Amino acid sequence: MAILETQELTYTYSVGTPFEKTAVDHVSLKIEEGQMIGVMGHTGSGKSTLIQHFNGLLSPTSGKILIDGKDIWEDKDNIRNVRFKVGLVFQYPEYQLFEETVYRDIAFGPKNMGLDDAEIKRRVLETAHDIGLSEELMERSPFELSGGQKRRVAIAGVMAMEPKILILDEPTAGLDPAGRDKILEHIKNYHRRTKNTILIVSHSMEDIASFADKILVMNKGKLFCYDDTVNVFARADEISEIGLDVPQITKVFGELKRRGLDFGKEVFTVGYAKELLLKTLNEKGAE
Amino acid sequence: MLKDITIGQYFPGNSFIHRLDPRFKIVITLIFIIMLFTGGTFPCLAIGAVYTLMTVVISKIPVKMFAKSIKPLLPFLLITALLNLFLVGSGDVLWKWKFIKITEDGLSISLFMIIRIVLLIIGSSLLTYTTSPITLTDAIERLLSPLKKLKFPVHELAMMMTIALRFIPTLIEETDKIMSAQKARGAEIDTGSFITRAKNLVSILVPLFISSFRRADELATAMECRCYNGGEGRTRLRQLKSTSSDYIALAVTLIFFAVTVAVGIITKK
């Protein structure tokens, strides 16, 4: 069964004023448990609005959101429990830090869930470990950390709630390449440990190609496609048409295919390309 | 949602009134207010009403918007009306119960007051509906500029107003974002007991203060990088220019004002 499902989800901003705008337009999709999903789309394509529906921060103008097959708006008083099931990390989450110590900031979410101290401690330390924060940082003030560390503390704050679905809105925005790779690596650590579903919004096709099982593409408020990574990047032409991009290495192999060198497979990471090239070269060399 | 609050109440459009010079609009609004207060009789008020109706129609702003601006002042209106209704003792008694009585004068005065205040609200909200806050402060700066001779910091005041107005939407957006982020972590802000809500407010205020200081600092640096050093000798991107339509609007308003004064003298008891 799908862990998260939307049915004809529609959201319109500022109804009845000159600023009226439909940000999400009849989106229906099903997300399976345990996958890592990349979310792509232009600024203003509705992806941020869409993900804010998943944990009930926005309520749809029409349509439904189901988690574990249950409409989340059926019981309005229980919407807080939905937020414990679906964790959302916003863009630039370091601006939401407020506690005196790193430990207490990460513990804020679990505490709101009403967990006991021992469980809170376990969760805080485990997520801190996943995200690469050493234990001596725990008693420091979050405001004296570096930008990348602050970002990781904020992400850990949501991870520590151990939501069944974790959504991250551009977790690598504004970081240098090393910081970017590190954060993605840490998110993958967390995924390996918990096996929870993870959605990551990103503008970097290279990043998405490196982790995603499936890709969700939004365009002008509509669901453009939601499919396995291979199938999505195979539609490179259509993706470029809506102003998005495919990984550079995919473009290189697309061009090679056009010129008559067909490897018979879609390539979207440099690592895989290297492997494929070496293998082919060896085979050719043996001939 | 917090974002839905409109502050400054600007309602974009391109009507005759939208295009008027903001300086003239401020002056015209002042004349309009004086006009409402000089005319002490119902016929005067009728002229004011005609003028208001005319401007509302020209502005093409939906009547609904004016109802919205009157709504928060309803209690005030009601109290004014009730006080006048029961406390004016002169004139023929219409209704009496023990020591409470309603007189003809009381009724007419309270009715008069309600109409006057409603017209006042509509007239002044028309100014803010048709003028963006930034142009409004520009105009205020120009209108107050004679005070510079008295060493009154007109430019600084206008700049502070502009910055404050400019950052209201930004801060609202920021608050909204931080609230959403803390709600996503299970903070009870709209729900829960008073004490939990107050506690959770800290999780919003601390980040908000930090980001406001950061923004102020960044803005100051950015202004200094562009060699801002006060209003002395500074030229403007948008020059306020008065056109013939501004003078026409002013003339029409003055005619209405004159007629109101004349009618007021004639109809005075």
Q: Count all strands of chain B and give the number.
A: 2
Class derived from helix and strand content of chain B: mainly alpha
Strand order in the sheet with the most strands of chain A: 6-7-8-3-9-10
Mean pLDDT of chain A: 88
Give the ordered list of helices and strands of chain A: EEEHEEHEHHHEHEHEEHHHH
* Sheet having the most strands of chain A: 6 strands, mixed
Instruction: State the shape of chain B.
Output: flat
Query: Number of helical segments of chain A?
Result: 11
Strand content of chain B: under 5%
Description:
The complex is a heterodimer of chains A (287) and B (269). Chain A has 287 residues and is α/β, with parallel strands linked by helices. In chain A, 41% of the residues lie in helices and 21% in strands. Chain A has eleven helices and ten strands. In chain A, strands 6-7-8-3-9-10 form a six-stranded mixed sheet, sandwiched between helices. A four-stranded antiparallel sheet of chain A has the order 2-1-4-5, with helices on one face. In chain A, strand 1 and strand 2 (21-31) form a beta hairpin. The termini of chain A are far apart. The model of chain A has no long low-confidence stretch (mean pLDDT 88). With 269 residues, chain B is mostly helical. Helices cover 70% and strands 3% of the residues of chain B. Chain B has a two-stranded antiparallel ribbon. The longest helix of chain B has 32 residues, at 194-225. The N and C termini of chain B lie far apart (53 Å). The A-B interface holds A 14, 18, 52, 55, 57, 77, 80, 83-84, 87-90, 93, 95-98, 108-109, 112-113, 143, 157-158, 161 and B 4, 11-12, 177-178, 180-188, 191, 202-204, 206-207, 210-211.
